[in-house]
Amino acid sequence: MAQLWGGRFKEETDRNVYLFNASIDFDKRLIYKDIEGSFAHAKMLGKQGIITEEEMNKILTGLTTIKEKVEDGSLLITDEYEDVHSFVEANLITMIGDAGKKLHTGRSRNDQVALDMKLYVRDEIDRTDDLLKEFQTILLRIMKENLGTYMPGFTHLQKAQPITLAHHMSAYFEMLVRDRSRLKDIRKRMNLCPLGSGALAGTTYPLDRELTAKLLDFDGPTLNSMDSVSDRDYVIEFLDALSIIMMHLSRFAEETIIWNSNEYGFVEMDDAYSTGSSIMPQKKNPDIAELVRGKTGRVYGHLMAMLTTMKGIPLAYNKDMQEDKEGVFDAIDTVKDCLKMFMQMVDTLKFNKEVMARSAMRGFTNATDAADYLVKHGVPFRDAHGIIGRLVLYCIDKGKAIDELDLSELKNISDVFEDDIYEEISLKTCVDKRLTIGAPSPDKIGEVIKIYEAYLK
Hints:
Blueprint: H1 15-21, H2 24-27, H3 31-47, H4 53-72, H5 84-96, H6 109-145, E1 150-155, E2 158-164, H7 165-190, H8 209-215, H9 225-230, H10 233-260, E3 267-268, H11 287-310, H12 326-347, E4 350-351, H13 353-362, H14 367-376, H15 381-398, H16 407-413, H17 421-424, H18 427-432, H19 442-456
Antiparallel strand pairs: 1-2, 3-4
Helix pairs in contact: 3-4, 3-6, 3-8, 4-5, 6-7, 6-12, 6-19, 7-10, 10-11, 10-12, 11-12, 14-15
């Protein structure tokens, strides 16, 4: 078909060039945002007297009909059209005649696509935030149920000090708090309307850009028409936020995979979120967690691709910017799919509480508390550190935990030890006496839970 911009050209575009240039295959997902933006533009044109009220009403009716026909499948978006904007305008003209040709007055595809992407990204930020909130609700439920579930905390993947499962889940809740905060910042920063910027230098028509911004729920219009059509910062920022979300999911996935291993046995995967082996009948594989971990690199790649695309583009719009869509769309789909699957997997995890507690005991996680015991009884900390080091070596040699030694064995290492050492280094005491905010004691985690409940409301 003849292109909307074809008046300047004597010959038709080569078919392969047309297909290479076209974006309809992927920007068709912007159809409803394109119609939404066109609706606001038509209302503004009518209010300003740039088109008649009759023409405005015809356009609005036609746009509504296109939306309904796309929704019910009676109007298909095909590669007959170069892009989603051409699809809407061409079908509008077919439906309502010459009035449809006036919709594009005072508008360029440059500010049109900038608007469509902003509307789309804004909605996807909200949808992603909803999923993160849902995940936080699951984590909060696990926290409430596991205030007294003891486990080892790790540094360098080595058992370090005893904590609780509630404390561990709180760490991931905090990561999601920051993720949601980033999304909120991006949404606020991007919420200015580019419509009315034209190709790059505005227009001579008396547009009311404040009105279109208000109709589309923006905080106001953008203030520089060149930047308006060439800004993709919000796309890059969203990809960055999505990448950090995936990094957090990947860390959680890695821990779940480790905890699910035979060597740890901290968790058992629900059958619905595991797979087996085609040759080894005993296997129960954590495929969901592994896929989330693997797909993280895919989202990172889209961020780097977009940064690279934008790095050398002079003002204002350039066709390179058409590359902002496929990677963003895929990143959004990937993150939403990963969040849905991973949170459902976490929601169905069975935690082996006795195994976790036994691992904390066998990992000498109470060694620091044993050293603190000596310090409280007058031993200088550096000496206490060395004494407990020798004690741990003795335990390793005997295949025992510290609190499995009898008092005579402890006194052979240091005569400062008395019967009260056993109470001092129990998992419950080690956890309960950590009473600063952010620490794992049930009292402090209980305070944090109340803060989280208020936050989610």
